């Protein structure tokens, strides 16, 4: 009698099926784009946050009609990163995974308003407080 061999792979542990796996992939990509937006809001350059916001709403039509997301977009258009972060906190209950996995997200509740602004995508800081 020959021994029986069984090979299992952890990579195939995901559910297999049409609608279920597409929904999981859509949820995963939504949370990844939300996390990118949150990190861009925290990192400071308004242009980067605006770009992450545009990417989010362009690839997720359902979120483009969300009131909280619209509020974040309005705050970013006005260059108010602190307001955008405050509004984004309302998403914490719906998308908790977007707020986890990053050291930067833990201490970001104390995010202050930027003192200057960034000149386009050049990364140069212009301080007009003097």
Binned strand content: under 5%
Spatial order of the strands in the main sheet?
1-2
State the shape: globular
Poorly predicted parts? 8-14, 111-119
Rg is 20 Å
Mean pLDDT: 74
Oligomeric state: single chain
Percent in helix: 40-55%
How many strand segments?
2
Helix run count: 5
Q: What series of H and E elements makes up the topology?
A: HHHHHEE
Largest sheet: 2 strands, antiparallel
End-to-end gap? 87 Å
The computed structural class is mainly alpha
Report on this structure.
The chain is mainly α and 130 residues long. The protein contains five helices and two strands. It has a two-stranded antiparallel ribbon with strand order 1-2. Helix 1 runs antiparallel to helix 2 (46-59) and helix 3 runs antiparallel to helix 4 (81-88). Mean pLDDT is 74; it is low at 8-14 and 111-119.
Q: Topology of this structure?
A:
Layout: H1 18-43, H2 46-59, H3 67-77, H4 81-88, H5 103-106, E1 117-118, E2 125-126
Helix pairs in contact: 1-2, 2-3, 3-4
Describe the structure concisely for a colleague.
The chain is mainly alpha-helical and 130 residues long. It has 5 helices and 2 strands.
Short key terms for the protein model shown above:
mainly alpha; 2 strands; 3% strand; 130 residues; two-stranded antiparallel ribbon
């Amino acid at each position: 009698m020959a021994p029986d061999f069984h090979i299992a792979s952890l990579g195939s542990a995901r559910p297999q099926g049409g609608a279920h796996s597409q929904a999981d992939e859509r949820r995963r990509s939504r949370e990844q784009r939300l996390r990118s937006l949150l990190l861009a809001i925290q990192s400071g350059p308004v242009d980067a946050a605006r770009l992450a916001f545009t990417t989010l709403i362009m690839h997720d039509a359902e979120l483009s009609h969300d009131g909280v997301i619209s509020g974040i977009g309005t705050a970013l258009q006005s260059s108010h990163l602190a307001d955008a972060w405050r509004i984004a906190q309302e998403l914490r209950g719906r998308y908790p995974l977007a707020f986890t996995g990053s050291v930067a997200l833990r201490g970001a509740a104390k995010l202050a308003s930027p003192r200057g602004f960034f000149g386009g995508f050049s990364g140069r800081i212009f301080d007009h407080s003097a």
